[in-house]
Amino acid sequence: SDKGFSPKFNERDGEVERRSLNGLYVVENGRPRNPVGRTGLTGRGLLGRWGPNHAADPVVTRWKRDGSGNKIAHPVTGKNILQFVAIKRRDCGEWAIPGGMVDPGEKISATLKREFEEEALNSLQKSPEEKAELEKQLHKLFSQEHFVVYRGYVDDPRNTDNAWMETEAVNYHDETGETMDNLPLEAGDDAGIVKWIDISEKLKLYASHSYFIKLVTEKRGAHWSEDPGPEC
Protein backbone atom coordinates (compact mmCIF):
# COMPACT_ATOMS: atom_id res chain seq x y z
CA SER A 1 0.00 0.00 0.00
CA ASP A 2 3.07 2.29 0.10
CA LYS A 3 2.68 4.83 -2.74
CA GLY A 4 6.39 4.67 -3.55
CA PHE A 5 6.28 0.88 -4.00
CA SER A 6 5.92 -0.06 -7.66
CA PRO A 7 7.68 -3.38 -8.26
CA LYS A 8 8.37 -4.62 -11.78
CA PHE A 9 6.81 -8.07 -11.67
CA ASN A 10 7.89 -10.80 -14.11
CA GLU A 11 11.24 -9.11 -14.70
CA ARG A 12 14.50 -8.27 -13.02
CA ASP A 13 13.72 -5.26 -10.84
CA GLY A 14 17.08 -3.57 -10.22
CA GLU A 15 19.00 -6.05 -8.07
CA VAL A 16 15.85 -7.98 -7.15
CA GLU A 17 14.87 -11.01 -9.24
CA ARG A 18 11.08 -10.95 -9.67
CA ARG A 19 10.99 -13.47 -12.51
CA SER A 20 9.66 -16.90 -11.63
CA LEU A 21 11.58 -20.09 -12.38
CA ASN A 22 8.22 -21.46 -13.60
CA GLY A 23 7.64 -18.77 -16.24
CA LEU A 24 5.23 -15.84 -16.32
CA TYR A 25 2.68 -15.39 -13.52
CA VAL A 26 -0.54 -13.35 -13.51
CA VAL A 27 -0.61 -9.93 -11.82
CA GLU A 28 -4.13 -8.97 -10.72
CA ASN A 29 -4.92 -5.52 -9.27
CA GLY A 30 -1.20 -4.93 -8.82
CA ARG A 31 -0.72 -8.19 -6.89
CA PRO A 32 0.98 -11.28 -8.27
CA ARG A 33 -1.09 -14.46 -8.19
CA ASN A 34 0.35 -17.73 -6.91
CA PRO A 35 0.73 -19.81 -10.10
CA VAL A 36 -0.08 -23.09 -8.38
CA GLY A 37 -3.43 -22.11 -6.87
CA ARG A 38 -5.12 -20.66 -3.83
CA THR A 39 -3.75 -21.19 -0.33
CA GLY A 40 -6.43 -19.54 1.80
CA LEU A 41 -4.03 -16.73 2.74
CA THR A 42 -3.85 -13.40 0.93
CA GLY A 43 -1.07 -10.81 1.09
CA ARG A 44 2.64 -11.31 1.58
CA GLY A 45 2.36 -13.28 4.82
CA LEU A 46 5.66 -14.18 6.43
CA LEU A 47 7.64 -13.95 3.20
CA GLY A 48 9.95 -11.06 2.36
CA ARG A 49 8.64 -10.28 -1.12
CA TRP A 50 5.45 -10.23 -3.15
CA GLY A 51 5.56 -12.83 -5.90
CA PRO A 52 8.46 -15.30 -6.06
CA ASN A 53 10.87 -15.50 -3.13
CA HIS A 54 14.07 -17.19 -4.28
CA ALA A 55 16.02 -19.61 -2.12
CA ALA A 56 18.94 -21.96 -2.61
CA ASP A 57 19.33 -25.40 -1.01
CA PRO A 58 22.79 -27.04 -1.06
CA VAL A 59 22.53 -30.83 -0.69
CA VAL A 60 26.02 -31.90 0.43
CA THR A 61 26.47 -35.69 0.34
CA ARG A 62 29.06 -38.40 1.00
CA TRP A 63 29.00 -42.20 1.21
CA LYS A 64 28.54 -43.78 4.63
CA ARG A 65 31.77 -45.61 5.50
CA ASP A 66 32.99 -47.96 8.21
CA GLY A 67 36.08 -47.49 10.39
CA SER A 68 38.32 -48.82 7.60
CA GLY A 69 36.92 -46.37 5.05
CA ASN A 70 34.84 -48.93 3.12
CA LYS A 71 31.39 -47.94 1.86
CA ILE A 72 28.50 -49.40 3.87
CA ALA A 73 25.69 -51.05 1.90
CA HIS A 74 22.12 -51.47 3.15
CA PRO A 75 21.56 -55.09 4.28
CA VAL A 76 18.26 -55.46 2.38
CA THR A 77 18.83 -53.62 -0.90
CA GLY A 78 22.59 -54.05 -1.17
CA LYS A 79 22.84 -50.43 -2.30
CA ASN A 80 25.38 -48.12 -0.70
CA ILE A 81 24.03 -45.70 1.90
CA LEU A 82 24.34 -42.00 1.17
CA GLN A 83 24.55 -39.37 3.92
CA PHE A 84 23.75 -35.67 3.72
CA VAL A 85 24.39 -32.66 5.93
CA ALA A 86 21.12 -31.85 7.69
CA ILE A 87 20.17 -29.03 10.02
CA LYS A 88 17.42 -28.90 12.61
CA ARG A 89 15.62 -25.63 11.95
CA ARG A 90 15.26 -23.31 14.93
CA ASP A 91 11.92 -21.91 13.75
CA CYS A 92 9.95 -25.17 13.54
CA GLY A 93 12.23 -27.92 14.90
CA GLU A 94 12.12 -29.92 11.65
CA TRP A 95 15.14 -31.46 9.93
CA ALA A 96 16.02 -29.81 6.64
CA ILE A 97 18.64 -29.13 4.00
CA PRO A 98 20.70 -26.09 5.05
CA GLY A 99 19.63 -23.26 2.78
CA GLY A 100 18.27 -19.76 2.63
CA MET A 101 17.25 -16.75 0.63
CA VAL A 102 19.16 -15.39 -2.35
CA ASP A 103 20.37 -11.85 -1.57
CA PRO A 104 19.63 -9.10 -4.12
CA GLY A 105 22.17 -9.27 -6.93
CA GLU A 106 23.68 -12.51 -5.62
CA LYS A 107 24.41 -15.44 -7.93
CA ILE A 108 22.75 -18.74 -6.94
CA SER A 109 26.16 -20.44 -6.75
CA ALA A 110 27.28 -17.86 -4.17
CA THR A 111 24.08 -18.29 -2.12
CA LEU A 112 24.50 -22.07 -2.01
CA LYS A 113 28.04 -21.81 -0.65
CA ARG A 114 27.28 -18.94 1.75
CA GLU A 115 24.22 -20.61 3.26
CA PHE A 116 26.10 -23.87 3.77
CA GLU A 117 28.95 -22.01 5.49
CA GLU A 118 26.61 -20.02 7.73
CA GLU A 119 24.24 -22.80 8.76
CA ALA A 120 26.39 -25.95 8.76
CA LEU A 121 29.85 -24.55 9.58
CA ASN A 122 28.87 -21.49 11.67
CA SER A 123 31.09 -19.23 9.56
CA LEU A 124 29.52 -16.04 10.98
CA GLN A 125 31.17 -16.78 14.34
CA LYS A 126 34.60 -17.65 12.93
CA SER A 127 37.72 -15.48 12.89
CA PRO A 128 38.88 -14.14 9.48
CA GLU A 129 41.69 -16.75 9.48
CA GLU A 130 39.33 -19.65 10.26
CA LYS A 131 36.89 -18.40 7.65
CA ALA A 132 39.63 -18.23 5.00
CA GLU A 133 40.59 -21.84 5.76
CA LEU A 134 36.94 -22.96 5.47
CA GLU A 135 36.63 -21.10 2.17
CA LYS A 136 39.72 -22.83 0.80
CA GLN A 137 38.46 -26.31 1.65
CA LEU A 138 34.89 -25.65 0.52
CA HIS A 139 36.03 -24.18 -2.78
CA LYS A 140 37.20 -27.64 -3.80
CA LEU A 141 33.78 -29.17 -3.15
CA PHE A 142 31.68 -26.32 -4.57
CA SER A 143 33.75 -25.82 -7.73
CA GLN A 144 33.52 -29.45 -8.86
CA GLU A 145 30.83 -30.85 -11.12
CA HIS A 146 27.45 -30.66 -9.42
CA PHE A 147 23.93 -31.90 -10.02
CA VAL A 148 20.97 -29.48 -10.16
CA VAL A 149 18.33 -31.51 -8.34
CA TYR A 150 15.37 -29.16 -8.76
CA ARG A 151 14.52 -25.62 -9.90
CA GLY A 152 11.10 -24.11 -9.37
CA TYR A 153 8.11 -23.60 -7.09
CA VAL A 154 8.16 -25.32 -3.71
CA ASP A 155 5.33 -26.34 -1.43
CA ASP A 156 6.31 -24.23 1.57
CA PRO A 157 4.19 -23.62 4.71
CA ARG A 158 4.71 -19.83 4.29
CA ASN A 159 3.23 -19.62 0.77
CA THR A 160 0.21 -17.34 0.25
CA ASP A 161 -2.00 -16.40 -2.71
CA ASN A 162 0.37 -13.51 -3.52
CA ALA A 163 3.82 -14.66 -2.36
CA TRP A 164 5.52 -18.01 -2.72
CA MET A 165 8.83 -19.82 -2.38
CA GLU A 166 10.93 -21.02 -5.29
CA THR A 167 14.25 -22.76 -4.95
CA GLU A 168 17.23 -24.20 -6.73
CA ALA A 169 18.42 -27.35 -4.97
CA VAL A 170 21.93 -28.44 -5.97
CA ASN A 171 23.81 -31.58 -4.95
CA TYR A 172 27.54 -31.32 -4.19
CA HIS A 173 28.88 -34.83 -3.70
CA ASP A 174 32.13 -35.58 -1.88
CA GLU A 175 32.91 -38.94 -3.53
CA THR A 176 35.99 -39.78 -1.44
CA GLY A 177 34.83 -38.05 1.74
CA GLU A 178 38.20 -36.34 2.11
CA THR A 179 36.95 -32.74 1.81
CA MET A 180 34.09 -32.99 4.29
CA ASP A 181 36.03 -35.12 6.78
CA ASN A 182 38.27 -32.11 7.39
CA LEU A 183 35.41 -29.70 7.98
CA PRO A 184 33.95 -29.54 11.48
CA LEU A 185 30.16 -29.32 11.29
CA GLU A 186 28.87 -26.66 13.65
CA ALA A 187 25.34 -25.26 13.76
CA GLY A 188 25.02 -21.55 13.07
CA ASP A 189 22.58 -18.85 11.99
CA ASP A 190 19.09 -20.46 11.64
CA ALA A 191 20.23 -23.97 12.60
CA GLY A 192 19.82 -25.51 16.05
CA ILE A 193 21.73 -28.74 15.33
CA VAL A 194 23.73 -29.92 12.33
CA LYS A 195 24.84 -33.46 11.54
CA TRP A 196 25.33 -36.12 8.87
CA ILE A 197 22.14 -38.15 8.42
CA ASP A 198 21.73 -41.49 6.62
CA ILE A 199 19.37 -41.13 3.68
CA SER A 200 16.30 -43.36 3.36
CA GLU A 201 12.58 -42.95 2.70
CA LYS A 202 11.98 -43.07 6.47
CA LEU A 203 13.29 -39.50 6.82
CA LYS A 204 10.69 -36.83 7.51
CA LEU A 205 12.01 -33.49 6.34
CA TYR A 206 10.81 -29.88 6.08
CA ALA A 207 8.68 -28.75 3.09
CA SER A 208 9.75 -30.47 -0.19
CA HIS A 209 13.17 -31.53 1.10
CA SER A 210 12.42 -35.29 1.20
CA TYR A 211 11.61 -35.16 -2.50
CA PHE A 212 14.92 -33.42 -3.29
CA ILE A 213 16.83 -36.03 -1.27
CA LYS A 214 15.06 -38.86 -3.12
CA LEU A 215 16.11 -37.38 -6.47
CA VAL A 216 19.73 -37.30 -5.26
CA THR A 217 19.67 -41.00 -4.27
CA GLU A 218 18.27 -41.90 -7.70
CA LYS A 219 21.02 -39.91 -9.40
CA ARG A 220 23.76 -41.52 -7.27
CA GLY A 221 22.29 -45.05 -7.34
CA ALA A 222 22.13 -45.09 -3.55
CA HIS A 223 19.78 -46.82 -1.09
CA TRP A 224 16.35 -45.24 -0.63
CA SER A 225 13.61 -47.79 0.04
CA GLU A 226 13.44 -51.37 1.35
CA ASP A 227 10.28 -51.84 -0.67
CA PRO A 228 11.32 -53.16 -4.09
CA GLY A 229 8.24 -51.58 -5.70
CA PRO A 230 6.35 -52.94 -8.71
CA GLU A 231 8.31 -55.05 -11.19
CA CYS A 232 9.07 -53.19 -14.42
TrEMBL record:
Coiled coil regions in record: none
Lineage: Eukaryota, Metazoa, Chordata, Craniata, Vertebrata
Enzyme class: hydrolase
Catalytic activity: ADP-D-ribose + H2O = D-ribose 5-phosphate + AMP + 2 H(+)
Provenance organism: Calonectris borealis
Protein name: ADP-ribose pyrophosphatase, mitochondrial
UniProt superkingdom: Eukaryota
GO cellular component terms attached to this protein's record: mitochondrion
Pfam family, one: NUDIX
GO MF annotations in UniProt: ADP-ribose diphosphatase activity
